[in-house]
Amino acid sequence: MANVLTPQGEDFPRWYQDVVAKAQLAENGPARGSQVIRPTGFALWERMTAEMDARIKDTGTENASFPLLIPESYFRREADHVEGFAPEVWMVTQGGGKDLEEKLAIRPTSETIIGEYMAKWVNSYRDLPLLLNQWCNVMRYEMRTRLFLRSSEFLWQEGHTVHESYEDAHAFTLRILHDVYADFMENVLALPVLRGIKTEAERFAGALNTFACDALMRDGKALQMGTSHELGQKFAKAFDIQFQGKDGKQAHGWTTSWGTSTRMIGGLIMGHGDDAGLRVPPNLAPVQVSVMIVKDSDEVRAAARKLYDELKADGLRVKLDDRGDIAFGRRAVDAELKGYPVRIELGPRDLKNGEATVVSRVEGSKQSVPLGMIAEAVAAALAGAQQQLWDEALGFREAHTVDVASVDEAVEAARTGYARMPWDACGVEGEARAGQSAVTVRLL
Amino acid sequence: MANVLTPQGEDFPRWYQDVVAKAQLAENGPARGSQVIRPTGFALWERMTAEMDARIKDTGTENASFPLLIPESYFRREADHVEGFAPEVWMVTQGGGKDLEEKLAIRPTSETIIGEYMAKWVNSYRDLPLLLNQWCNVMRYEMRTRLFLRSSEFLWQEGHTVHESYEDAHAFTLRILHDVYADFMENVLALPVLRGIKTEAERFAGALNTFACDALMRDGKALQMGTSHELGQKFAKAFDIQFQGKDGKQAHGWTTSWGTSTRMIGGLIMGHGDDAGLRVPPNLAPVQVSVMIVKDSDEVRAAARKLYDELKADGLRVKLDDRGDIAFGRRAVDAELKGYPVRIELGPRDLKNGEATVVSRVEGSKQSVPLGMIAEAVAAALAGAQQQLWDEALGFREAHTVDVASVDEAVEAARTGYARMPWDACGVEGEARAGQSAVTVRLL
Ligand SMILES: [Zn+2]
Ligand SMILES: [Zn+2]
Question: How far, in Å, CA of A13 to CA of A18, rounded?
Fold first, then answer.
């Protein structure tokens, strides 16, 4: 097949750009760093939100919706928070043709506005834990942007909770990290993640502790895929989130916040993609199987439609590609680019033999399968693909992690992957020194 | 039960406000006319989006995501559109601490920015129809606001499509009106809707024709629940959406747009609610059945949990209310307020008799049912509630629609419901005269 993408080995960032454009995932928007997510890209996000939302609800968290615009004064109430976010804010100053009395920030994150309402809703220990989440858009002013990975506007979920005690809040932060984020990333996205604590320098503005899930991309660089923050009593004090405890005394709550975003689409692309395009794990894939006609004829069309209906009835996510007016070769390249795990190719010759060709994107295999056995072959190919993507990603990570003893060795090792070293041998000073070589201490 | 709400007959707008507050559906946000949708309200919206999204996808439409911020210059390209929306726009003028070179409008609707991208993506008749939708937030500056019904920020879906011909676009506009909007409103929301064409005065800014679905609220006033616009070639010309036709010639596309919003939550409340609160049709209800313990004991708890598990396994949307530390009476009032169609009350006495009490919110009935027959009783109660809500709404509309022959009669009749009259007897002049009495010509 012709190379439609810059090979990864030649220029990884350009390969990434090419995939995003050629697979029609996203484009730049008109405002600085904004993005248009096209249907193929958005379908990935819809599947991510469905899987994540179910896991979030399993923790007892409920969805809500808070306003886009936050009065500037709210930000000022928590000193570390305003310092961290003020430089990134987009500001609304006019409405209805007039200047507003108070400037309104487009939310870069919603701790402040949600804190304001939590304070109203929390009165007694009976109201706790209060577990909220919202799926929404946020904006941060960014100078250098890359589609999905760093954009001024992005889609995300942000969870915000209040608990009775430090222990409850701490446990919930970790529950989100492990049972929601890591579980989704490993079992659906097939990306092994490292879980750990960020250093003080990398912590969320206003947090006591930030836990993160990082995955290793195929260029040997780590990508932060999700974060879960212990906010201690800082926001509860700034917004006066108080409750009457079982002992009858007033106390401030303990809050957490946690988020994952459309950046995960970038992680999916760079964690599994190859020189032919995306490779989407079947557990995520919006299209698990594409049933394609090779050449147009009434018989082929009818047989393809029948296969499509059968696989769909089996509960699979299936696409029917019977666009006879577009050359098969072009459509096959497109299917590789978009990373559909399995294609079923059906032409007049296959049909004459009572067969179809089952192609696995990940295994790179092609096999003729009797029409009556397609369902089994597809199920096996999907299971195999999910496993192989996981095995490859895990093998890659193991091959790219080295144990080092000094910061200099770590900087060297970070050229091609992870360096694992004792924090004692690094420390805050070592972290700053590594930072000069664009190496960050990812997780403790 | 004590009156927790202002009765509808006393003051309908206050009743509405009371329901929204007491059922914990929503609250005012800090910025003018913004709103916080609380979990109970948001769960209604989640069910609405799920049902609508499935219907939208059935038309072949795909979801995408376009930016929140639209350059001011885009608005200026379609004259009627800018005139209609300019006064309502919220404007971003600063980002990253600096003034922006071009002001950016928070989208009040996205015809312009989506038109810009459609022009890139449409080249040939093979690219048509292009059927896109997005679920997002929009903002319009409003002076007088009411939660859900008229808010400065609201959540909605906006569909945007391009077609080869006037006929295709026209047919699609109607398909959305009937198969998506009216079908959802009638079969899920149990609200009979009138479908028709808006007069020129009430038309969407820039549209050739606006079709709408209106439902009658229990105060005798009509509420617009959804609109579907034929945009002709106006936006296609303003944004240069051109394609090469089958005949090899370049032509402008024909576009449509259509939307429904969180205002439907207001329609649900006012279309079915009564003096005890919401009445949610089972086909929509996020909670179809609430299994409640009357008094706390280990046996009652265990039996309630068992019922909950069984009903959930049957595919019902069930809530378990085993909050033994809150008085049963308070919880029952809350269940009425939130409009759960069916409650199952389980106390020690019920349990001793091997029974539970099944309460229907809509029918107002209570019956003791043997534990082994709960599933059947619940299924019957749910079906009955859906039907009764529809019958009541339809009966109410019929009782509140009168045929009139003159504008004066229409103004009189509109005090309590719909007036049906021939357009010949009204006309543009009559519409203006009726408008002086705050009566609008809803649909032709
Ligand atoms: Zn305080
Ligand atoms: Zn043109």
Answer: 9
